[in-house]
Amino acid sequence: MLSLSGKVAIVTGASRGIGAAIAKELAANGAKVVVNYATSEGPAREVVDQITGQGGEAICIRGDVSLYDHAEVLVRAAKETFGRIDILVNNAGITRDRTLRKMQAEHWGEVIEVNLNSVYNCTSAVLPHMLEQGTGGSIISISSIIGQAGGFGQTNYAAAKAGIIGFTKSAALELARNNITVNAICPGFIATDMLSEVPAEVREKIRAKIPLGRFGGSEEVARTVLFLAVDGQYITGQCLNINGGLYM
User: Fold this and answer.
1) Does 157 qualify as catalytic in the annotation?
2) Which residue among 37, 157, 234, 247 is the active-site one?
3) Does domain 8-242 have CATH number 3.30.540.10?
4) Cβ-contact 242, 187 below 8 angstroms
5) Is the pLDDT of residue 56 over 90?
6) Which residues contact 56 (CB under 8 A, 6 or more apart)?
């Protein structure tokens, strides 16, 4: 039996990497999935094609979720297409790595807007629908080990990802009475396109510091999202670390 049969999920930034893996994992377990993307239409449609090719239901919707109006349009389209919204996965994210001395205001602002403001935008937009349904819901945001431990040249990214953790705890307190769980996942170094851009010698130094001796896989993050969506009814306000023991 498909565990998410009848449920509808929105996954932001789902055209590649962790977001694509999450969308496919939720769909494989019965959810109808809205694949959000900002610019990568081709890869987003490939994710949808993979889902539908395996008998699932999915649509892709363009929207820059760093903008509140776009988040509202995304949520409205999801509701009009599938009739309800049960799961929101806030995954959209970018990096603009610079040391603080070299970081310009635009580098700071872009990362805060996409990585942190989008979490508020989408959660705020989806909340009235979850409350109206009266059946609870699951809001899961992808934070990062960098939001917990910091990262050289990543003050903007660390601030945004740490902000997600604070947002998660406060929202969980507010929404528990409505049976809406709010959790964050903090991945460590995951084998994605973003990590592949790091020079090989730097990647090896990072890998050598990971107690489990390897990088994580996108599917491992996706399965944690699935766990929270299916069996996480008594888990809220938490940060689940998927980092191979790099941060404890």
Assistant:
1) yes
2) 157
3) no
4) yes
5) yes
6) 27, 28, 32, 33
